[in-house]
Amino acid sequence: MYRDKKILAIIPARGGSKGIPYKNIMDICDKPLIAYTIEAAEKSKYIDYTMVSTDDSKIKEVSLKYGASVPFLRPQEISNDTAKSIDVVIHGMNFLKEKGEKFDYVVLLQPTSPLRTHNDIDEAIEILMNSEDDSLVSVCEVDENPAIMRKIKENRLEPIIKFTGENLRRQELPQVYIFNGALYINKVSMLLEEKVFVNEKTMPYIMEREKSVDIDNMLDAKLVELILKENGND
Length: 234
What we know:
By secondary structure, the protein is α/β, with parallel strands linked by helices. Helices cover 28% and strands 19% of the residues. It has a single domain (7-140, 177-227), classed as Spore Coat Polysaccharide Biosynthesis Protein SpsA, Chain A (Alpha-Beta Complex).
C-alpha cells in the first residue's frame, strides 16, 4: 500500500511458448526465470498482493514455492497465442473482486524481464502515485535511432522517418525510447474503462538498458545469466 492505495501485482505466465518450451520456469543461474519477478514483487514495500496468472500446473507449483498466490488456473480462451495481456489482467482483477479483494492500482510484471528489481518497482509506483496521471510504463533508450533506418520498397531504400533537414549527424538526432516490457502500472479504473495499459497520457519510467533485457530466445537468456553473474546474482 502506498498513500492509502491498495496495489496488486499480476505476473502473467502461460505454459505454452513457441521459442523456448516452458520459458517462464527455465533455469537461469540455478533459479526458475519466474522466481526473479516473484521475488522482486515480494520485496516491494508497496505491493499488497502478488498473483501469478497461469494455465499450467507446473508453473503454479513453482510460483507457489517462491511465494506468489495462484488462486486459479487461467481459462484456455485467454491462454493461447492470441490472448491479450489486458484480458488476462482484467480476468485476474475480476476474480479477486468476486472474492472480496479490491485494489486501486495494478502492476503488470512480465516474468521475461528478470533484471527489473524491487527498487525499480517501488520508485515507479512513487513517481506515478505522486502525479495526477493514471498510468506508467517502463522504457529504455534504443540502440539505433529509427531516423537512420531504411525499408526496402521496389528494390529501393526508403527512410522510415523523414526529417526536413538533410545529412543529420547521429548526435543531432532526437533521443528515442522503446517499451522494455518490465513494468506497467495502471489505476484499476483506467484499465476497466479504457481496456489499455498505455494511452497518450502515460508516464515513462526510464530504465537502464542493462536492466531491460526481455528474454525471447536463448541468446537473451545467456545475456541475462552473464549480467546476473557479473552482479553477484543479486
